[in-house]
Amino acid sequence: MSEKSYEGIYDSSPFIAWIHNLSKNQMKYLNSKIDELDLGHEMRFIMMIYDNPNISQDDLAAISGHSKANIAKTLKKLEDQDYIKREINPENRRKYILKTTERGDEIVPKIRQISSDWEKEVGITEGDDEVKKRIKEIAINAMGLVD
């Protein structure tokens, strides 16, 4: 579809709809490049766990904006596929800490490279660092509104 065909359709769309559109289309792109993974947004959870070793399920729920039940279901899938492992937190035996497995560690650089390729293709540049920083600040503020 050409840019011209979208003209005027989304003029009144809320900003968050554009963010959602970016997110959905990036996932479609990632899946088209790594279709053997059978993963959707779960890729982001693998990356969050990789970047934050020993993160708790509760922290992952807070960061992602997903319910604890949804997180538990997703983590079960990722654990069954050997991307992550859940271990009992020795400081609080009722909670789990999360870590990526060797398989998870191997897939993260691939996801990052494909994400980087996608950013270039859609026109996100190093010059957009301030915009990215501001969107991150907004996301953090939004998390604080629902705690």
Description:
- This protein has about 150 residues and is mostly helical.
- It has a domain of about 90 residues: Winged helix-like DNA-binding domain superfamily/Winged helix DNA-binding domain (Arc Repressor Mutant, subunit A), CATH 1.10.10.
- Helices cover about 65% and strands about 10% of the residues.
- The chain contains seven helices and three strands.
- Strands 1-3-2 form a three-stranded antiparallel sheet.
- A hairpin with a 2-residue loop joins strand 2 and strand 3.
- The N and C termini lie far apart (about 40 Å).
- The model has no long low-confidence stretch (mean pLDDT about 85).
Core attributes:
Arc Repressor Mutant, subunit A; mainly alpha; 147 residues; 63% helix; 12% strand
Task: Give the biggest beta sheet.
Answer: 3 strands, antiparallel
| Name of the CATH architecture of the domain at 39-120 and 139-147 | Orthogonal Bundle
Number of distinct beta strands: 3
Summarize the amount of helix as a percent range: 55-70%
Q: Which topology of the domain at 39-120 and 139-147 does CATH recognise?
A: Arc Repressor Mutant, subunit A
User: Looking at the chains present, what oligomeric state does this protein adopt?
Assistant: single chain
